[in-house]
């Protein structure tokens, strides 16, 4: 089995689920819970519980929260290579979930913003392994050099590379052209509809995927309730798989991360795209049926 090396963000998610419509400038009853988060750490956790060999490279604060996040990752079976930052706290994300299930996130990257090339363990970069880079590492100016160094080390080591697009708003602030230039050489790109539109200007998933194959040999577009599609610059038509039905959506936080973790193992094993997409949709459905972005213990 191919070892997956994930470079990315580690966060604590404070999830506030409103019981009613938000009362602006007033008080709204809510259920507030704390969970492990961060796209890179989430993907690593889902990969580990699915049986993959996975190492996660990131940065945490020298605080109790950071220690708890570190122990959580080890509990999932992740080889957690976390550098402890003596000055910055562990990253935090406030996730506001409306009574209709819509999410808005307020992020403080904390120690994630100081990830540096020196934090990358050289022993993890070698032929036969796969690098998955969280887009947040590139979008955040403080950790960008680390992301670029990870991509360069992976290329020189002969590793296969996948990249996800992080989130549409910060991706738009960063700009499509720089992001596409930085990620040149990656074999696989993960994006959702909004992120694909930022990168290509196309509203249609198939059209966006076709444009993106000018930069990436393979592209996966996550389409929420409509499932996901895969497109390659060597294929005339995309492969589409429907989303798995769920009885109740509890929390959509981290569903896209779970999808990536479901997709990667069969894809790395050379399985057909439809099988990889179905595996991603299966894990995404599992993620949205419980609270928090990580797998349930």
From TrEMBL:
Record InterPro entries: Carb_kinase_PfkB-like, Carboh/pur_kinase_PfkB_CS, PfkB_dom, Ribokinase-like
CDD domains in UniProt: KdgK (cd01166)
Keywords: Kinase, Transferase
GO terms for MF: kinase activity
Xref: Pfam families: PfkB (PF00294)
Domain of life: Bacteria
Protein family according to the UniProt entry: Belongs to the carbohydrate kinase PfkB family.
Name of protein: Sugar kinase
